[in-house]
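pipeline stage [seq->struct] | target=adenosine deaminase | organism=Microbacterium oxydans | residues=371
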Amino acid sequence: MSIDANGDVTLQGVSLRSLPKVSLHDHLDGALRPATIIELADEIGLDVPESKPAALGSWFAKQSDSGSLVEYLKTFDLTTAVMQTREGLTRVAREFVQDLAADGVIYGEVRWAPEQHLARGLTLEQTVEAVQQGIEEGEDLADSSGRSIRVGQLITAMRHTDRALEIAELAVDFRGRGAVGFDIAGPEDGFPPSNHRKAFDYLAESFFPVTVHAGEAAGLASIRSALLDGRALRLGHGVRIAEDLEVITQEGDEVQVQFGDLARWVRDREIPLELSPSSNLQTGAIAAWGDTMVDHPFDLLYQLGFAVTVNVDNRTMSATSLTRELARLVETFEYDLDDLETFQFNAAAAAFLPVEEREELVEMIAEGFDA
């Protein structure tokens, strides 16, 4: 693996950035360009901790590297503050899509919480419309530059508030108008999915896809609730499912593992894990195993046959991209192009799209990696 002057990573003679990718776990309010934050803050008279884009980017990375999800989430106070107008939401969504396309993403799902963007008078419906307008503008701009990309919205409710049913109804209302799924986010520990059972019942009755943040700041009970109460089709992070695995013996690459019932269910049912390596380090999600990338149970889960996917979580906070996340995994676990292709196949299969469109994504990935 080598890195060129532009920061692109080459593996086996292939640019990782050029490879077709699928992004499933990417927060809109965690993916703002620092320069955009500064400009939007200036328009509304909001003070920012740094006045230069590079310095502000460094500030986010430093503040986010706390080892605590609660502290990590505090950085979002600044990003959401500049996303309270239709113009601000549309611009951020448009640039979000452009940045994904530039990173080689051909399909992405963007998750965000409309209830956090009402401070300047917008309604819930207006926020979703503003974001959808930006997504469509971004798709058109990407297409005009020769990059084809499609992005769907994951309408998200905050798990520590009481609006989940209202947000679930909003998501279903925008089915076919940009919304492809539902999520709950925010402080996980102490706010289990079971608190929002009515919302999840409604979504199940509406046959609307659900992913749930679980197994990040809380452990197996959170994952269990996501599956049983939330009927989650995917697990947002889900990294702590590894707590239900007991390594019996390990000799070189050979590992003998005892599965708990929950881990076996997730593995055998091929429930996708939306793993975000850099973020998982920053928030302390892998603290039970260590605090460096080599300690991340990603490789253990992959070798055991879990449906692992690679994601950025929050590009601004982690100063990352999907290309960078893949490069970190290659550097740490010595993966090759076949491994990276498997991760993209897993993500394509997990996308909240009709099966025909998922099959098209798989074909596009295969063609891109073969080329």
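stage status: PASS
auto-comment: Residues 124-144 form the longest helix (21 residues). The domain at 10-370 is CATH 3.20.20.140 (TIM Barrel).
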